[in-house]
## 1
Amino acid sequence: MARETIEDAQRICAMEAPTGAEGPRGELVARLLAEAGAPAVETDAVGNVIARFGEDDAASPGARPPVVFAAHLDTVFAAGTPIAFVRDGDRLAAPGIGDNSLGVAALLHLARHLAGHPPARPIWLVATVGEEGLGDLRGAKALIADHELAAFVAVEGTMAESLVVGAVGSLRYRVTVRGPGGHSWGDRGTPSAVHALVRMLDAALAVVPADRDDVAFNVGTIAGGTTVNAIAAQASAVLDLRCGDEAALQAIARDVRAAFAAADDGLSVDVEQVGHRPGGALPAGHPLLHCARRARERANLPAADEVASSTDANAAHGAGIPALTVGISTGGNVHRLDEYLDLPPIADGLRALIALADEVSAAAF
């Protein structure tokens, strides 16, 4: 069971899939889902690969909307990044092996199970696009916009020791400052886009509450200027603001944006929102949470910490759809070239995933 899934994960990982260029990996996963016994596999307009199970009576009166199990196809690694697998005892390392090649491989394992044990309600297995970085949950958001869903389960390669029941919201902005530029001596006194951007970033950092442990503000990238002896005519930064409370996120974001409202004379400032991962939480008494807890018991796993994070499930939370995230194994160094998976927990993680699908199939929500 685990060996086949590990092999699937390596095959998927070997096919590069930067955010926005997931097509070849999607084609591979579509073929593998069909080989796993999925009766209907399609690729939608944005590139999501969808395998549908339990839909014999989907058109009948009273048919229930599907429950989605989703794992994202894309990785944070640029095209051309070498993919080398390094086995060290019970660990397997490679760029993207845990985030999220193992999660996608787990969908194949689930497909084999559902092919032999048709669910009592529609269950869709979806390999999504655009989860990482500025992909802005493009695949999950499109799926939710286009279909009525009963619930949404995001599947990640790691996170096996927790149940992610809350969604940490985030807002991303690109700030661009423009001016005339000039020679650092001959045009001294001309306002610099770089200088102005640095001052505004400092002001933005100052308005983010430092006494809240559910808030994070990150200046991810800065670029600008042309050479050491030229006054910068342009400078830009990409910002990530996160908060566990959606209302607080929006309020803090207003203060951050206000820090960029006033530019020096002769400069212009453009603040563009480039991403929003909505926050939210699964209600404590929702049947989906009970299903996930029972699934862990059936797999002989201990009770999990119930935490908040940021995954494809954020898109469902933002749309009012019951959602959570489960993991298959543990690992580390996520988003690094030496990202790794712990292999022994995979078998239990797969058992818990199968048990969750069976619990959901029988649930009344």
## 2
Amino acid sequence: MQNHSDSSLNSTSLTTANLVSSGLMGFCFMIGVPGNIAVIFFIVRHFKMDNFTVHLMLNLAAADILCLITLPVWIYNQLYSWSIGQSSCKFFAALVYCSAYSSVITVTLLSVYRCLQIRHPQLWSRMSKRRERALLISGWALALLFSCPSVLAQEIVQSKSKKSCGRILHSEEYRLTAAILEMLLAFFLPFTIILTSYCCLHQKVTQGTFSHRQRLTKLVTRIVVTFFIFYAPHQIINLFQIFEIVFKSSLPVFSAKLHEIRSSTGDIAGSLTFINSCVNPFLYAVASKTLRQQK
């Protein structure tokens, strides 16, 4: 989500982290964009569209594409200088944050839906197609709302050697609030819901009467686990930022060490979140036969 640094972290020259981050983003763009486009075309052509799980997977692929198409801009921002204006800076940041939050919300809905569909099938059967569409639209609206604090702080940062598009956080209190909100809304809250859903789902899905649904549930589980693996490093860096601010006065040496770690690894951790968008098409491809047969 945050492949560009806060203003306090901008350096005057390219670093190894810049080059590694740019390389990862370039790989993600080349693999992820055509992969997710292929997923959308394949699902629309072959899958049964009366399944809400399939609608959620289409939504996730769309969010992945929206996020990945911004990567050439961020690669240029890492390697050179931002030259397309402040409005563009905010626009591309909005695409990244909104699509990332949409991915989080969609993965959460996937887990909740699989739980309800298996444990309480009659409850979800009362949900009309119109309400399902409203739920998807509400997810995007919520993603846009959650991304507002980060987008509003996005500005063109002037360092000694170049301009870059990054977040300008004018006070320690704002930085702390932004980091805590991002961890809560993009990680802890959704994954608490996801884990609760899977705890409720586990007993039913292992019973023989539900064996025909196990493969689709395993696919959703893989999507969730993959999502966790590639988003966790970014959230760990966010946690370092929180500790850095909290202990700045009482433990200045410890705070400075956290700042150093965050400066050297933050861009790489942020770039890993894009890999998640590249892995999903391969998960769909492995389970394509199951999904086509699923009702």
